[in-house]
């Protein structure tokens, strides 16, 4: 039996709360330190889906040309703010290097190992009743307007098959059998029967937090000002004063970058801002997440309404909301679902902590073993959180991690 520790989790998103729950199950005394509301940062604004068939790095062979087209397309899903260039260019260089075939395949293998078990792990963490309330294992659908497969499509199919991902390529008629409301311009698709979605992103985090609270996990509402490692533990200097712990886990999203810097570590995290719109009065128009593969826009049916996500905006975390990005999402909704009629729209912008190779950082500080990182999950926080929590619990206990952590090292 491993030694029980006092553990602080810095960050109350899906990764931090999942880690808190798993650590509490093992008998550790856990405190989640969160400046805002639990589950209402980046974890609130995601596409709410899980799909191991989509666990590919954002960078892939040939991505440079597609990225350039998107950057110079005023209606495209990618925007790079000029003021962020000095900080983003080194990140983009590493991003493009990940697009080399061998690096890309290696990153996919590591992402698949992290993300594929998520549905089963959540079922264990939440219990059957809560899992059934939150999860909709109805599959996921990717659609295209063209009819021909590229060389890359063939390679992707091969990698999915190699890793045991269930998928079916379908024609236009089959696409509309699954989702009759989709545009008739879609000529082909891929159906992933093992995918699905949650009915509420914030509800998932809150459900996990309820389980954690029942096991004694506490929440301290505070801003972390500094992390000070010592011989016998770690001190958090916070807006509510100093607090001492045996171990600290940094799961603070993009804020992890600044906290790491104070500890002498430069994490390769980009401030990739994501947007979504939600149409509260729309329900039942689709029954599963649908991704327009060419434009990277995703529609997901939630309890609160139909959500559309799909913007990657590289800008300062605190930059004001760009209304042009909201307009793109409205336009994509009408293009994907031409008969959609909506009046009320709720919009949101938040910051994804994105690494250039799409692999999260799940590892101890290089010099201070009592400080662990669990950040950088980018677009795949829901999928990667439960296995990340398991790995964090292994590291805290001093066990051999259940899957290799080499790919998720500090870098």
Distance between the termini: 32 Å
Q: What characterizes the major β-sheet? A: 10 strands, mixed
Number of helices: 12
Uncertain regions spanning at least 5 consecutive residues: none
**Helix proportion range:** 25-40%
Tell me the Rg in angstroms: 21 Å
Envelope shape? globular
What amount of the residues lies in strands? Answer: 25-35%
- For the secondary structure, the number of strands is 22
Class from secondary-structure proportions: alpha/beta
**So what's the oligomer here?**
single chain
Q: Name the average pLDDT.
A: 94
Task: Write up what this structure looks like.
The protein has helices spanning 14-25, 63-71, 85-98, 101-115, 118-126, 128-134, 151-162, 172-178, 201-214, 255-262, 323-336, 381-397, and strands at 6-10, 29-34, 49-50, 78-80, 135-136, 140-144, 168-171, 188-192, 196-198, 218-221, 224-229, 234-238, 241-245, 247-250, 270-279, 290-292, 297-302, 305-309, 312-314, 346-354, 361-364, 371-375. With 411 residues, it is of the alpha/beta class. The strands form 4 sheets. Strands 4, 6, 7, 8, 15, 16, 17, 18, 19 and 20 form a 10-stranded mixed β-sheet that branches. A hairpin with a 4-residue loop joins strand 16 and strand 17. Helix 1 (14-25) runs parallel beside helix 12 (381-397). It is globular, with a radius of gyration of 21 Å. It starts with 5 loop residues before the first strand and ends in a 14-residue tail after the last helix.
């Amino acid at each position: 039996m491993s030694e029980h520790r006092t553990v602080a989790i810095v960050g109350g998103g899906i990764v931090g709360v999942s880690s808190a729950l798993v650590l509490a199950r093992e008998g550790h005394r856990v405190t989640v330190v969160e400046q805002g509301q639990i589950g209402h940062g980046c974890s609130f604004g995601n596409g709410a889906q899980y799909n191991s068939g989509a666990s590919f790095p954002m960078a892939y062979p040939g991505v440079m040309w597609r990225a350039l087209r998107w950057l110079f397309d005023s209606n495209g899903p990618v925007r790079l703010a000029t003021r962020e260039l000095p900080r983003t260019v080194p990140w983009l260089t590493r991003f493009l290097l990940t697009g080399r075939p061998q690096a890309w395949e290696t990153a996919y293998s590591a992402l698949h190992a992290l993300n594929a078990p998520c549905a089963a792990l959540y079922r264990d963490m939440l219990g059957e009743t809560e899992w059934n309330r939150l999860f909709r294992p109805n599959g996921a659908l990717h659609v295209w307007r063209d009819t021909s497969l590229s060389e890359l499509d063939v390679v992707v199919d091969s990698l999915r098959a190699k890793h045991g991902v269930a998928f079916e390529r379908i024609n236009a008629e089959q696409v509309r059998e699954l989702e009759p409301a989709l545009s008739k311009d879609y000529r082909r698709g891929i159906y992933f029967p093992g995918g699905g979605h949650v009915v509420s992103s914030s509800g998932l985090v809150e459900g996990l937090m309820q389980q954690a609270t029942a096991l004694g996990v506490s929440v301290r509402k505070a801003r972390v000002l500094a992390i000070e490692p010592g011989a016998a533990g770690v001190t958090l200097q916070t807006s509510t004063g100093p607090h001492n712990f045996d171990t600290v886990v940094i799961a603070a999203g993009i804020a992890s970058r600044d906290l790491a810097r104070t500890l002498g570590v430069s994490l390769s995290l980009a401030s990739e801002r994501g947007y979504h719109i939600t149409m509260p009065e729309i329900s039942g128009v689709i029954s599963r997440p649908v991704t327009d593969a060419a434009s990277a826009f995703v529609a997901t049916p939630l309890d609160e309404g139909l959500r559309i996500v799909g913007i990657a905006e590289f800008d300062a975390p605190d930059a004001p909301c760009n209304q042009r990005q909201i307009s793109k999402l409205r336009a994509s909704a009408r293009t994907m679902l031409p008969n959609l009629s909506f009046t009320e729209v709720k919009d949101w912008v938040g910051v994804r902590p994105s690494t250039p190779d799409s692999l999260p950082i799940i590892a101890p500080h290089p010099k201070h073993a009592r400080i662990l990182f669990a950040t950088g999950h980018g677009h795949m926080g829901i999928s990667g959180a439960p296995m990340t929590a398991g790995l964090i619990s292994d590291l805290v206990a001093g066990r051999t991690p259940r899957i290799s952590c080499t790919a998720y090292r500090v870098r």
